[in-house]
Amino acid sequence: MAKKTKFYVVWQGRQTGVFTDWKECEAQIKGFEDARYKSFDSLQEAEKAIQRDYWEFVTKKDSKPVLKEAPPNVGKPIKNSIAVDAAWNTATGDMEYQGIYYGTGDRIFLQGPFKDATNNIGEFLAIVHALAYLQKKGSDLPIYSDSRTAISWVKKKHANTKLVLTPRNKPVFEMLQRAERWLAENRFSNPILKWETEYWGENPADFGRK
Q1: 143-175 confidence digits (pLDDT tens)
Q2: Cβ count within 10 A of residue 162
Q3: Which of 1, 12, 37, 169 is the most exposed place for a label (fewest CB within 10 A)?
Q4: Edge-to-edge strands of the sheet including 192-194?
Q5: Entry's InterPro entries (predicted)?
Q6: What is the DSSP letter of 64?
Q7: How many Å apart are CA 120 and CA 110, to the nearest integer?
Q8: Spatial separation of the C-alpha atoms in residues 85 and 98, rounded to whole Å
Q9: Is 85 annotated as a binding residue?
Q10: What number of helices (H) and strands (E) belong to the chain?
């Protein structure tokens, strides 16, 4: 019996689109942080899916994996902290971000949506927003983000984005400039920590669009 052809949709990867070959799909997602993809049985299904949001196609089983036991060097997250996260709509390019006080689940801030942005930009802006917020409060609470890219940008005080400036996303670039300037002009002692999703579950600031 002939092997049934699968069609692979990549919403977030090195390249996005519909792929008919697994190796070609794998090349777009392997080693790519927060890659988003799914297989479909027909080209028609795949072409419809690429026009919609990834989270519409993630099942409850997909979105709640079995958590690994955290090793001693990871431990448990600090409750007295702020968690930040961003959401990016692959169909529209809209981005928004928020900050949540982990101890109670209360939302501290919500910004967006912003046109034609990226998830990494949202994650970066969320961290800087949290830093500025905590500085005003005179607080040294730690900040959790699940984006290694955004954390590295904050450490370098520069958002190394390849996004192209357009009239639609000009406000986003203005926010990036303000964020970078804030990092250059201010000192902070708040630890910026990686949220370990595979051990602790979903980031408390996740938008829950699964």
Answers
A1: 999 999 999 999 999 999 988 999 999 999 999
A2: 6
A3: 1
A4: 106-114, 95-101, 82-88, 143-145, 192-194
A5: Ribosomal_bL9/RNase_H1_N, RNase_H, RNase_H1_N, RNase_H1_N_sf, RNase_H_bac, RNaseH-like_sf, RNaseH_domain, RNaseH_sf
A6: S
A7: 16
A8: 6
A9: yes
A10: 7, 8
Q: With 90 as the cut, is the pLDDT of residue 32 above it?
A: no
Q: Is 146 annotated as a binding residue?
A: yes
- Angle of CA points 204, 158, 207, to nearest 5°: 20
**Domains identified in the chain and CATH numbers:** 7-58 (3.40.970.10), 82-200 (3.30.420.10)
- Confirm or deny that 45 is annotated as ligand binding: no
The reply, when asked if residue 94 is annotated as ligand binding, is no
Tokens of 48: 């419809």
pTM: 0.69
pLDDT digits (tens, 9 = 90+) for 94-131: 899 999 999 999 999 999 899 989 889 999 999 999 99
Hey, what amino acid is at 133? Y
Beta strand pairing status for 143-145 and 106-114?
unpaired
- Please, which residues bridge with residue 98 across strands? 85, 110
Structure token digits, residue 93: 């390019």
Q: Say which residue the tokens 């450490």 belong to.
A: 155
Q: What count of other Cβ atoms lies within 10 Å of the Cβ of residue 207?
A: 16
Tokens standing for residue 123: 């994650």
